[in-house]
Write a structure and sequence with these properties.
Elements (H helix, E strand, L loop, with lengths): L1 E4 L5 H9 L3 E4 L6 H7 L5 E4 L7 H5 L6 E4 L9 H7 L2 E3 L6 H17 L1 H9 L17 E5 L3 H12 L3 E5 L11 E2 L3 H7 L2 E4 L13 H6 L4 E5 L8 H9 L3 E6 L23 E3 L8 H21 L20 E8 L4 H11 L4 E8 L3 E8 L6 H7 L4 E6 L2
Parallel strand pairs: 1-2, 1-3, 3-4, 4-5, 6-7, 6-9, 7-8, 9-10, 10-11, 11-12
Antiparallel strand pairs: 13-15, 13-16, 14-15
């Protein structure tokens, strides 16, 4: 099987695939639609990060592609609908860099509360600003977390260890960790927090989730942190609230539009503002996170190709499967319409094939059936199963 890894994926991934007998090509950059459309034809596994766009045209040409590994968290760069219709499974690394983001958030909360970033910049320019004014401990302060998912909940734990009092709001029901308090609305959190930090996902409804109305609700002098997505905060309104002094400090790692290359000169309305830490989308970028992603994603892909497991897949129903010792495993991927199981089992019954084990899981679009059968079977059934109406893909694993 051929693996194509793009965008400088950590060498651990290449090592893993090679060790397991795959042929691997690794490229440091991304490929554009036309080049990738040609290159993809004989590829079975594609590894990308956030820059490579997996468009409908690329997927049209992906005749052999079984799996895409997104060596990052987001999967917006992939046409998921098209992957579903072609039976291509997508895996990502939803929590490999969680800890890295949380550590940066903690570091920046302390930095902003103490004003050390500005004081350091001033000293670089010869100004000795020795003062305790507007410099605070984080102990005993109220941290408001909007979005209590992987990052929000981890941050909650570490912030409590520093003596902060944690309040959070999530649109889903979440178990409060430690002594954190679950608030019934985002407004409630904004109103009481000394530090507000946003860790929601980038769904369209979250565009400009934090705008002037939300800044108005916050305490005067509140610290505001966005390490999640650029689209979530109205950046002009954020800048105005720093200028007016409504916000006492800001840390931003993500922007509404970000440059595609390191070389591009970047400008944002947040530059030159006081007590404002700007980082170039690096909250999750650490050596540890890169290594963890490079171990997590290939293991999931390998498990899928080897035994059909789809645990933690982005687009496929999640199924954890046992190994079988003697026998064969049929993987049938179909559009999720009624009656497919009956048709499949009918064909097996007519050919007197005994089912050793069968697993079915569906999501809104896809039905995923694994059928384990005995060693001896009539090979004609494969074609018949493939011909069942609404079949997307059939694979015989072993
Ligand atoms: P997650 O999916 O585990 O958590 C997101 C949480 O936000 C979920 O619990 C969801 O229910 C909640 N949510 C969504 N909309 C909400 C709303 N309007 N109000 C309240 N809660 C809402 O995601 P995660 O892994 O914790 O990541 C959080 C964010 O951080 C994502 O946007 C991700 O893209 C971003 N991120 C950025 C970096 C970086 O380098 N800057 C790195 C990793 C993750």
């Amino acid at each position: 099987m051929k693996v194509l890894l793009l965008e400088n994926i950590h060498p651990k991934s290449e090592e893993f695939f090679k060790r397991n007998g795959y042929e691997v090509e690794s490229l440091s950059g991304s490929l554009d639609e036309n080049v990738l459309s040609k290159k993809i034809k004989d590829v079975h596994v594609l590894g990308i990060r956030s820059k490579t766009k997996i468009t409908s045209k690329v997927l049209e040409n992906a005749e052999n592609l079984l799996a895409i590994g997104a060596f990052c968290i987001g999967t917006n760069q992939i046409n998921i609908k098209k992957c579903n219709s072609k039976g291509i499974v997508i895996f990502n690394a939803p929590f490999s860099n969680t800890r890295s983001v949380v550590e940066l958030a903690i570091g920046n909360i302390i930095s902003l509360m103490r004003g050390t970033f500005d004081k350091s910049s001033k000293l670089h320019h010869g100004m000795w600003e020795k003062s305790a004014s507007r410099s605070f401990e984080v102990r005993g302060k109220k941290l408001g977390i909007i979005g209590y998912g992987n990052i929000g909940s981890q941050l909650s734990v570490l912030a409590e260890l520093l003596g902060m009092k944690v309040y959070f709001y999530d649109i889903d029901d979440k178990l409060p960790l430690g002594n954190a308090e679950n608030c019934s609305s985002m407004e409630e959190v904004l109103e009481l927090a000394d530090v507000v930090t946003v860790h929601v996902d980038g769904r369209p409804e979250n565009t400009n989730l934090i705008s002037q109305r939300e800044f108005d609700i916050m305490k005067d002098g509140a610290i505001f942190i966005n390490l999640s997505r650029g689209s979530i905060v109205d950046i002009n309104s954020l800048a105005e609230n720093v200028k007016s002094g409504k916000l006492g400090g800001v840390s931003v790692d993500v922007y509404p539009s970000e440059p595609v290359s390191k070389k591009t000169e970047y400008s944002t309305v947040l530059q030159e503002l006081p007590n404002t830490i700007l980082t170039p989308h690096i909250a999750g970028s650490t050596e540890e996170a890169q290594q963890s992603i490079a171990e997590f994603v290939p293991a999931k892909i390998y498990d899928f190709i080897k035994r059909g497991s789809t645990v933690s897949s982005v687009n496929f129903p999640n199924l954890q499967l046992p190994l079988i010792i003697n026998g064969h495993r049929l993987v049938h991927i179909h559009e999720n319409v009624p009656g497919i199981m009956a048709k499949l089992n009918n064909i097996l019954a007519r050919h007197k094939i005994n089912i050793e084990g069968q697993y079915l899981k569906t999501n809104q679009e896809i039905g995923y059936v694994i059928t384990d059968i005995k060693n001896e079977y009539d090979k004609n059934v494969i074609g018949m199963l493939e011909n069942i109406e609404h079949t997307v893909r059939l694979r015989l694993l072993f």
